[in-house]
Amino acid sequence: GPDGKKMLVVLGKVDIDTHYGSIETSKILKLPTRYMTSIGTEVLIYPPSYRDFILNMKRGAQIIYPKDVSSILLDGDIWPHSIVLEIGSGSGALTLALVLSVGDTGYVYSVDNNRKNQYRATKTIERFLHYKKIARNNYEFIEKEALDIDINGINSNISHIVTDIPEPWEIVKSIKVSNTIKWISYLPNISQVQLLKEALDASEYRNIYIKEVLEREWKVKGKIVRPEHSMNGHTGFIVFADYLI
Predict the structure, then answer these.
(1) 215: how many CB neighbours lie within 10 A of its CB?
(2) pLDDT by residue for the chain (245 residues), tens digit each?
C-alpha cells in the first residue's frame, strides 16, 4: 500500500476487503500489477518473496526469522544434494527454505510429534511453491517423538540434522550417528546453548560454532538517513557442529 505496509492474500474468485479498499480479484489478469481499489487507493500486487511470505503468513508455532534462516543455510553448508533431517517442523518457515535449498537432488525429512504443526507446515510449503510455480517432490513429514528417531531407519545418507526443539541435547545423546554429519540447532536461551554444547562435546562433535544474528534496517528518504527506531534484535542462538568420521 501507499504507507509501505504489506498484506499476504490469496487471489481467487472472491473479492478481498482491505483497509486500502476492496480488490476485485477477477480483474487481476497478471502479476505484478498496479491496482486501483474501490476507494481510489493504488496498491501494488505481486507474488511474495520468501521474506514477505514468511513474515506475513498466518502462523502457529513461532517462526524462525529470515535473518536466522539465511545463516542456517549458508553457515550450515546446506546446498543441492544435501539430505536433511529436520527435528521440529513448526510453522514450516525453515522447512520451506530447506526444501528450496536442497533442490531436486536433495531431500528433507521433517519430524514433529504434533500433527497440527505438520499440517500447517505442509500448507506453508505448498502455497509458496504454487505462488512461485516451483515443482518439488523432495520432502516428507514424519509424525514421531524426537527421542524415537532412528536416523538410519529414515536414511543412512543424512548429511545434516537441524533442530528447533527445546531440549536438543537429549537427541544428541539418543541419535546414533554413523557417518559425517553437520548438526545445527536453533535455541532462544543461552542456558539451552550451554547444555547443548556440553552434550555435543561429550558425543565428540567438533568445529562447534555459536552465533546470534542482529539485523537493523535503515531509513533513507531525501536527506534523512538514520537507522529505524526498532530492530530485529535477539530472536535466537544458532549452534553448528560437525560429527566427523
Answers:
(1) 13
(2) 777 788 787 777 678 888 888 888 888 888 889 888 889 898 998 888 999 888 887 766 678 999 999 999 999 999 999 999 999 999 899 999 999 999 999 999 999 999 999 999 999 999 999 988 999 999 999 999 999 999 989 999 999 999 999 999 999 999 989 899 999 999 999 999 999 999 999 999 999 999 999 998 999 999 999 998 877 778 999 999 999 98
- 216: its cell numbers: 537493523
CA atoms within 13 A on the CB side of 51: 5
Amino acid at 8: L
Distances in Å between the alpha carbon of 215 and those of 81, 218, 228?
Answer: 30, 10, 11
What residues are paired with 243 via a beta bridge? 181
Task: Return phi, psi of residue 219, to 5°.
Answer: -100, 120
Cell digits of residue 228: 529505524
CA distance 120 to 96: 12
Instruction: Tell me the CB-side half-sphere exposure of residue 12, using CA atoms within 13 A.
Output: 4
Please state at what angle helix 115-132 crosses helix 93-102, rounded to 10 degrees.
50
Q: pTM of the entire structure?
A: 0.88
- Taking CA atoms, 69 is separated from 51, 80, 85, 192, 220, in Å, by 10, 16, 15, 19, 26
Cell 546470534, residue located: 212
